[in-house]
Amino acid sequence: MVTRVQAFVSEVQDGDTFTTADKEVVRLAEVCAPEVGKPGSAQATQTLRGLVERKYVTLERVARDSYARTVADVWVDGTHVNAYMRRAGYNC
What we know:
Elements: E1 4-14, E2 17-20, E3 25-28, H1 41-52, E4 56-64, E5 70-76, E6 79-80, H2 81-87
Parallel strand pairs: 3-5
Antiparallel strand pairs: 1-2, 1-4, 2-3, 4-5, 5-6
């Protein structure tokens, strides 16, 4: 059974990772944005920031990665954030 939870996004770290108000670090499932300092990183970060920062999102937790981050599908205002970022070119 899939569990969906609401969370408030307090900060976006980069184009595929953010932190919730509860200090949970979330990485978007199946989204690969350039690392900080690499070409395209600032654009990816701004795109994600515009979608989710300082907003309530719905998380569907998929897994934990090797850095103990939550890997999740994320929705905000009816938009599937993962799909939006993939359409913007941030595919794995």
